[in-house]
Amino acid sequence: MGNAAPHSARSLLSKALRRGQAGHELTIRQGPADRMVPPSVECKGICMQRIVCVVLGCLVFAGFGCVGKRSTEPSFGPSAIELSQTFSRVVDDQLQVDVELLDGFGDSVKGSGVLTLQLFDYEPDIPEVKGRQVMSPRRYDLGEPDVQRQLWRRVSRTYYVEINVAGLRADRTYLLQATYAAKPETTTRPGEVEGQLRFFDDATLKPRGSD
User: Fold this and answer.
1) Is-contact 113 181, C-beta < 8 A?
2) Which of 148, 150, 195, 199 is an S-S bond match for 81, by CB 3.0 to 4.6 Å?
3) What is the pLDDT of residues 81-136, one digit of tens each?
4) How confident is the model at residue 27 (pLDDT cuts 50, 70, 90)?
5) What is the pLDDT of residue 149?
C-alpha cells in the first residue's frame, strides 16, 4: 500500500503532461510502456528530414539537367559574335577587322575570352566557299588588360584589329572568319560544358566599289 500512492501520482502526472503538451510532444509506443520524446528532439528530427529532402531534390534535378528560370533568361555575357560587313575590309596589304560581341539582349558587350581571326580565299564554286588559307590564325586573349585596351573602341563598342598580311590584293574577294571562345572560368550558365562555349561568324570581304 505504501508504494501505491507514489505510483498513482506518477501516473496522474504523466497523463496531465500528455494532455497539456499533446501538440508539442511525440509519443512513441514501445510495448506496454510509453516514452515521451522532448520537443527539442522532435524539432531536430524534422529539420534534418527537411534538409535531406532539399539535398536529394537538388541532386535529382542536377542529374536530369534541370533547366530553371535562370537558364531561360537572356544572358548578360557574350552570347553571339558579329563581323561588320562595312568596316571589315582589305586595304592594300592590311586586313581591317571590326567585330562585335552581343549579349542575350542584342546589346554590345565586352568579353574576356579568346578571339580568333582567320582569312581564306573566297571560292564561290565550292560548297563551303572557303578556299586557300591566306594567313595563319590570329588569336587575341581579351582577358589580358593590355589587349583589351588596345582593341576596344568605346564609340562603336566593338573590337577593332589591323593585321598586315603580305600578298593581299584589294581586287580579290576573301572569306573572313571570327571565333569567340569563352574561358572555363567564365562558362557558368546551366547545362554548358566548361571551355566549350564558342560563337562563330563569317563575312565576305569584296573589293571596294564592287557592289
Assistant:
1) yes
2) 199
3) 999 989 999 998 899 999 999 999 999 999 999 999 999 999 998 888 999 999 99
4) very low
5) 97
